[in-house]
Design goal:
It contains ten helices and 14 strands. The chain is an alpha/beta fold. Helix 3 packs parallel to helix 4. The radius of gyration is 20 Å and the shape is globular. Bound molecules: N,N,N-trimethyl-histidine. N,N,N-trimethyl-histidine binds next to strand 12.
């Protein structure tokens, strides 16, 4: 076992993105990637254990049950690159199955340093696996992984947990195309997608009884207060989850309960909110099983297998780069 890390080279700029997202005309917005600072990542770990939120457990169950099947369907000797590794808990099943047939290199790409460290610790005991973590945005990290591949070595990309759902459908295809362009023909992508389910179930999953998802969402404002010197009053904003039927997604918003002005010194703005106005913070798109294959094809992949959970509609899709 070898564990190393390539550290920060994050290109994002919280202040600039907050300024752009809160001064635009129409719907105010903040990019969902900022939900995942250390506190946010830890809160998401809790969300994934809530009875209302079955997504992560379905993902893990599928990987645990079908790891050998999945690995058998992946062609060649592969290095594994994971986009957004999270805690690494569900990746274990794939790495263990792979390491029975080959020495395995595992490259988690993750913007949260804490999540990266957790993942490395969680998986460091698997014998014939070497881990090299990249604290990077997805495509940047994948480019680096692809650049250091050995001759004849293929890459298996893991994009699990339905993170693809954070993109709208069009941007999702674009992202998959970008992944495809970094890869070589014959490389593969294991894509986890949350499937469509009744609106009532979605609202419960994204507005849980205990208020963990509310805290996860509101943490964005706490983060702006801490990192940008903003003066968001947390009692004047509330968490909201709503289904967007047209987009087939569930959206998280932060709703201003009064008319107010918020100052954000590091972003050099003061932002006016009317009563009831919201900041859109995340979308989680839901897929139908049948649309994955054509979607993958548009991005230059062939969908060769799908595994569906029997308790929570969720699918693992194995795509091969054409
Ligand atoms: C980690 C992006 C898959 O969209 O379901 C959970 C994040 N947001 N509860 C999702 C999330 C609110 C989650 N993903």
């Amino acid at each position: 076992m070898v564990v190393q890390a390539i550290s920060t080279n994050l290109s994002y700029d919280f202040a600039a993105d907050v300024r752009a997202g809160l001064t635009r005309t129409g719907q105010k917005e903040l990019p969902s990637k900022y939900l995942y600072d250390d506190v946010g990542s830890a809160l998401f770990e809790v969300i994934s254990r809530l009875p209302e939120y079955g997504l992560t457990r379905a993902d893990e169950r599928l990987l645990r049950r079908h790891a050998h099947d999945i690995v058998d369907a992946v062609p060649g000797t592969v290095a594994v690159a994971e986009l957004g590794s999270g805690s690494g808990k569900k990746t274990r099943w794939i790495l263990e199955a792979l390491s029975r047939r080959q020495r395995t290199f595992y490259y988690p790409v993750e913007i949260s340093r804490t999540a990266l460290a957790m993942c490395e610790r969680e998986l460091s005991d698997i014998d014939s696996v070497s881990i090299l973590g990249f604290e990077r945005e997805y495509l940047e990290g994948l480019l680096e992984v692809s650049a250091c591949r050995r001759k004849g070595q293929r890459i298996l990309v893991l994009f699990l947990g339905s993170t693809i759902g954070n993109f709208n459908r069009e941007a999702g295809v674009q992202f998959l195309s970008s992944v495809r362009n970094i890869l070589a023909s014959g490389d593969s992508l294991l894509l986890g997608t949350d499937l469509e389910k009744p609106a009532s179930q979605l609202v419960r999953a994204y507005d849980d009884e205990l208020g963990v998802t509310a805290a996860f969402n509101l943490n964005l404002l706490v983060r702006a207060n801490r990192e940008l010197g903003a003066d968001f009053d947390l009692r004047q904003f509330e968490h909201e989850a709503k289904v967007n039927y047209e987009a087939r997604s569930v959206e998280m918003h932060l709703r201003s309960t009064t008319s107010q002005v918020v100052n954000i010194p590091a972003a050099e703005v003061s932002v006016e909110f009317s009563e009831g106005e919201t900041i859109w913070t995340e979308s989680s798109h839901k897929y139908s099983l049948d649309e994955i294959s054509p979607t993958a094809a548009t991005a230059g992949f062939r969908c060769v297998r799908q595994w569906v959970d029997d308790q929570w509609p969720f699918a693992e899709n194995l795509l091969i780069a054409e």
